[in-house]
Design brief:
The protein is mostly beta strands and 391 residues long. It folds into two domains: 2-55, no CATH class; 61-386, Neuraminidase (6 Propeller). It has five helices and 29 strands. It has helices at 2-8, 13-21, 25-31, 36-42, 45-55; strands at residues 61-66, 82-87, 93-98, 108-114, 117-122, 131-135, 140-143, 153-162, 167-176, 181-182, 185-190, 196-200, 209-214, 222-223, 226-236, 242-252, 257-261, 273-282, 285-293, 299-305, 309-315, 317-323, 329-333, 336-340, 343-347, 350-353, 360-362, 371-376, 389-390. The chain has a five-stranded antiparallel sheet with strand order 4-5-6-7-29, with no helix packed on it. Strands 8, 9, 10, 11 and 12 form a five-stranded antiparallel sheet that branches. Strand 15 and strand 16 (242-252) form a beta hairpin. It is globular. The two termini are 28 Å apart. 32% of the residues are buried.
């Protein structure tokens, strides 16, 4: 009401826009109804970007949902259609969002999150190639056009923000099932241009590589305007002996170019068996995690490094889920039998661990499955797009 009275006293439009840009998403959406000029202001792409920059450092959240694996029974996760919004620092649940669209397989897969937009695809790629962009804050979503590469099965996607052009892009890398290698071409969807377009992968695969696969343990990170995927390969070495290697495939969302990144040298790390490596992000930077069973029984060695190595000994470790924006690890521990209400039942514990201080803080979420986790902030993104569905 105060804002309305001042406007009637000829408050300059520039001041009105600055005030609106500092309000919450919920308030801004309500002020669209004040007058036609305010509606025009608020739905303008420049205002949406300005609002995002002013609100980017407010309360930060994470979105999480049950992780899906191939051939997982439908009954094992009854809430696959539900995303949970939690505080970043504590993982305290704030609200829940039901995914407003369905896939043929009924297995929605979270690709990633950028500036309040969540990207989902059908996890069972052989069922459909549908991709959706969804902003729960404004209750709008968009189904992307059909792919232009229809003959090959889609295996991996990525979602990122092109800051130079204020644009959101989805990258799809098809998979050649006869050779078990990525194809020479990929495709990119631009929200501002709308259709998919083909781009050259431009990567020379090692001539001795027989088989490769993408690492699905963690979400593929979008760091410093680049998307990253970990690719593990099986190669024929000297004397026809099989050996394993890995590489990081990087995609610049601004220039739309791929390149290969070498893995960091991990000499001097603690010895582990059955080592698992994953590319991820840590405090806004690209990082590599490495985990495996240690010397002590029922323990895991968990390493975080690129140029600097950090090694953690985690007891009863079962699954590393994600980093928060503050560099804290979310770890789900081994289930334990607890006597409750005259019955024995399995309980699961989730812990936030600071890798620098080793301080652990048990959190309230109780889940008996692994999670897909992405950072999240409320925004007006997608508000100016004409081809969206409101619900």
């Amino acid at each position: 009401m105060i804002l309305q009275r001042r406007t009637n006293n000829h408050l300059p439009d520039e001041i009105v826009l600055e005030i609106l840009a500092r309000l919450s998403v919920k308030s801004v959406l309500r002020f669209r109804c004040v007058c036609k000029s305010w509606y025009s202001f608020i739905t303008n792409p420049n205002f949406i970007s300005n609002h995002l920059s002013h609100n980017h450092h407010h309360d930060e959240y994470v979105i999480h949902k049950p992780k899906i694996y191939p051939y997982q029974p439908l009954y094992s996760c009854s809430n696959l259609q539900v995303c949970t919004l939690a505080l970043d620092r504590t993982f305290e649940t704030k609200s829940e969002f039901r995914i407003p669209f369905n896939f043929q397989s009924r297995h929605p897969g979270l690709v990633g999150s950028c500036n309040g937009i969540l990207c989902f695809t059908d996890f069972i790629a052989s069922k459909s190639k549908d991709v959706y962009l969804w902003n729960p804050s404004i209750r709008k979503f968009k189904r992307l056009p059909d792919t232009c590469l229809t003959q090959l099965r889609t295996l991996v996607l990525g979602f990122g923000y092109d800051s130079q052009n204020n644009d959101y892009k989805v990258v799809r890398i098809p998979w050649n099932c006869t050779k078990w290698m990525p194809t020479p071409e990929a495709e990119v969807y631009s929200l501002s241009l709308d259709p998919w377009k083909r781009v050259e992968l431009g990567i020379s695969w090692r001539p001795n590589a027989l088989f490769s696969k993408f690492d699905y343990i963690l979400a593929f990170p979008f760091v410093s305007r680049h998307l990253h995927w970990m690719i593990e390969m099986r190669e024929v070495g000297g004397g026809q002996k099989m050996c394993f290697s890995a590489m990081i495939l990087s995609f610049d969302v601004d220039s739309e170019k791929f390149k290969e990144l070498p893995l960091p040298d991990d000499e001097g790390t603690c010895p582990v068996t059955k080592c698992v490596k994953c590319v991820t992000w840590f405090k806004g930077k690209l990082a590599l995690t490495k985990s495996g069973y240690g010397v002590q029984p029922h323990s895991m060695l968990f390493s975080i490094y690129w140029n600097k190595l950090c090694v953690l000994l985690v007891d009863d470790f079962t699954y590393f889920t994600a980093f928060t924006n503050y560099g804290i690890l979310l770890i789900q521990n081994m289930p334990q039998l607890v006597f409750t209400n005259c019955e024995l039942e399995w309980t699961y514990k989730s812990v936030l661990t600071d890798p620098e201080t080793l301080h652990e803080n048990e959190i309230s979420i109780q889940v008996n499955y692994e999670l897909d986790v992405a950072t999240y902030i409320e925004s007006l993104a997608l508000l100016d797009d004409a081809n969206v569905v409101s619900y």
